[in-house]
Amino acid sequence: MLNQIKGLHHVTSMAGDAAENNRFFTHKLGLRRVKKTVNFDAPDVYHLYYADELGTPGSVMTYFPFPNIGKGRPGVGEVGTTVFSVPEGTLPFWEKRFTEQDVSGLARDEQFGEKRLSFAGPDGDGFALVEAKGDSRAPWIKGGVGNDEAIRGFHSASLRLRDGGATEELLKFMGYETVDTSGNIKRLALKDGNGADVIDIETLPGASFAGLGAGSVHHIAFAVENRAKQLEVRKALMETGYQVTPVIDRDYFWAIYFRTPGGVLFEIATNEPGFDRDEDTAHLGEALKLPSQHAHLRDYLENNLQPLGD
Fold it and tell me: Cyclic nucleotide-binding domain: from which residue to which, for each copy (predicted)?
């Protein structure tokens, strides 16, 4: 069993309108945009990162907003719900805020003894807030939400699968332990992680497979401290039979990718070097930052990428 993985690093999804996406996460959720860059493989498309003040692993929601992309089709073989952690007693605040800001899909429930508020993103993305006990992570408090209510980072993510058995075994190999079951949902968690420590497996045997589009999660990333730990994980996964990519430089972290038995794309990402490698902490996410291979496109991109309307 691996011991290098420290919880979630980031979740990356697809979107339609970049400005709407930016408004939702910075104005409605009160997160900080910590990086404005472009897709490595499609440089005419933004890659936007939202997180806490520093872009701490375990707090980072990222998006590829493709203009005119079709809507995603929910189903199995994907991340279903991305869940953020908020302090106990704050769901009434968030429900009132979301109602005033016309956030859709609001619903209150309780899972595994935790109070939840589900809501939808601008493209129908599945989200929830959970009142988490004892989450000591520092929030970003300059986004219009005060310290007592602000999002602390990720709480968990759910995987929707036809058969969760093989993915459960993979997660156990990655250091997770099964901690509870409720109906068709099995909860796994890491001990001594970074706070974003929980994965729920929702088994839906007869469901159709998901179709990638706006509102869909593209991949989910797990955190390791550094490149040495990442190489240890890569070697172990490959020895177990997984087809893992070479290490890829993503400017703000190093990444490897592999497809899980249930169809979800997993990434293992390093905590280093971080989002302040090319911007001062006070100005994260303000300027358009380009991967070196796309630097020659700056004039074109600055004139043609959709204004975000900060």
Answer: 77-137
